[in-house]
Amino acid sequence: MKTNKATVVVATAVALALGATACGGSKDNDGGGKGGSGATDAALTSVVNKSDKKGGTLSLALSDEADSLDPGNTYYGWVQNFSRLYGRTLTTFKPAAGKDGLTVVPDLADGLGKPSDGAKTWTYHLRKGLKYDDGTPITSKDVKYAVERSNFAPEALSNGPTYFKAHLIGGDKYKGPYKDKNPDGISSIETPDDSTIVFKLKDAFADFDYLATFSQTAPVPAAKDKGADYVKKMVSSGPYKFQSYEEGKGATLVRNPNWDAKTDPNRKALPDKISIRFKVKQETVDNDLMADNLSVDASGTGVAPANQPKVLTESKYKKQTDDSYAGATSYIGLNLHVAPFDNVHCRKAVQWGIDKASVQAAQGGDPKGDVATTLLPPTVNGYTKFDQYPSAGNKGDVAKAKAELKACGKPKGFSTNISARSDRPAEMSMVTAVQASLKKIGVNAEIKSFPAGKYFQNFAGNPSYVHSHKLGMIMTAWGADWPTGFGFLDQIANGSAIKPSGGNNVQELNDPKVNKLLNQGIGNTDDAARAKTWGDVDKAIADEASAVPLIYRKNLLFRPTSATNVTVTQAYLGMYDYLLMGSNK
């Protein structure tokens, strides 16, 4: 899943101010009782400020806008989390503290999937009494249609992943519900009755219950679908429905009168109203949280570098912070179709040349993450520790970088463009540090910044734009779709994930060895062997040198005192779990 303009001077000051705090850590974790605000890092392993009180408004704000709030047209982790308030999926992650939050539980389905035919067929049965906000029943055909529109209609919905398209029988031929003339849709998804759905795959898929948690399985009745415009008037299957939505500005959700809590053991549905505002500067979001005028930062990526000293050195704020591992890696994709990165030695020159220690300092130091040497972060199943491009103090190796430049025919260096998201201060600080370190080896990288909401759809994930504007280097960050190596790597490294728009394989890597390892690995039902495969994939990607791992990300989150039932969920990239949260305001 997709996972934030500051100067190097600011970033250096942040790192110096946080040095003692990062080393010292905190042990004042009391978990937070009923009516209490908790302590430092309390929400990492417990539910802080517990309450069953209903009412009030849960307020969220975001520095840009969503890629889309349509559950079938999104890939940002925070939207996957947020959309569960109005879109129920076949399965979901248990809303719970700590490791329990990684447990997959039934949601629309009355149980987990039943595999057969060596995990090539998966069957789910829906709960009884499920209804949309207009009172009409939810059927298995609506789930099937949701999968069809979200995976097979890139002309209208380009943002989401392509797992179903890649693994369903006939997925490579089906044209999608907007073009296909067969009213029954793709034949490899069967709906023998209104409460049963059967997925037939061309290969074994051991992680299918994880895949079923994705918002692409949130039901959509075909009669209500308007393609790209569906987001303007969506139906709800969860406890909240849209009262209003303004593209680029925000939305308000209110209670869904036809949601029945008896059919939904996963959602507390405490607030009467939920509001979200878009395009609010990150520093303003942080200040509103500290002033208790906001419930939560929707992005879940943590406070801006400029505000970190304040929240970590002032005790009244520090006790309201949670420094969570995101299960995500910030990295640079080197596009294989933009010269000179079509030459592996030019790619390796960049690998050797980047001073990762300076990048770490720029994005906020230790509280915001550790220097990365692999794409897979240590918290994801299948992680294997290795460093293909080691250097003293993680500062890069100028001599080896220049040797690779000579090997690629660019002994004096070269010029290129590097993209980043303009509304994410930490990412802009990081890209500035990358630019500075590359100058030392003669590589001049001009920074091109774009808004996060359309970053992948219109720019970094749009091959036509990337090629024509020579975006050789692309700043990005990635978190696991689910906490296994396949759930992390497939959509950023498999050639089948390359899309005309909204893609996340920003390198456009289509290596037969990598593709084969990924496809064989997910079909292996031996847990240990499958986990080993993901480390092998990571090493094969490193051999290609098309991705430069920078930081294993942490989110320095801030929880205001008025927010209730606050806990970090590792299932959604180390942000707070929206299904539990309430508000005293």
If you had to describe this structure to a student in words, what would you say it looks like?
With 585 residues, the protein is an alpha+beta fold. 26% of the residues lie in helices and 19% in strands. The protein has helices at residues 8-24, 77-82, 140-151, 163-167, 208-211, 282-290, 308-313, 315-318, 344-353, 356-362, 398-407, 425-439, 455-459, 463-468, 485-493, 512-522, 527-544; strands at 57-61, 91-93, 104-106, 114-116, 121-125, 189-193, 196-200, 240-246, 250-255, 273-277, 296-297, 321-334, 369-371, 414-421, 443-450, 473-479, 547-558, 563-564, 568-569, 575-576, 582-583. Helix 9 (344-353) packs antiparallel against helix 11, helix 10 runs antiparallel to helix 12 (425-439) and helix 16 (512-522) packs antiparallel against helix 17. The protein is globular and about 70 Å long. The model is unreliable at 4-36 (pLDDT under 50).
General shape: globular
Helix content: 25-40%
**For the CA atoms, what is the radius of gyration?**
23 Å
Number of strands: 21
The number of helices is 17
Low-confidence stretches: 4-36
Mean pLDDT: 92
Strand order of the largest sheet: 13-17-12-16-14-15
The N- to C-terminal Cα distance equals: 31 Å
User: What structural class do helix, strand and pairing data support?
Assistant: alpha+beta
| Main β sheet profile | 6 strands, mixed
Q: How big a fraction of the residues is strand?
A: 15-25%
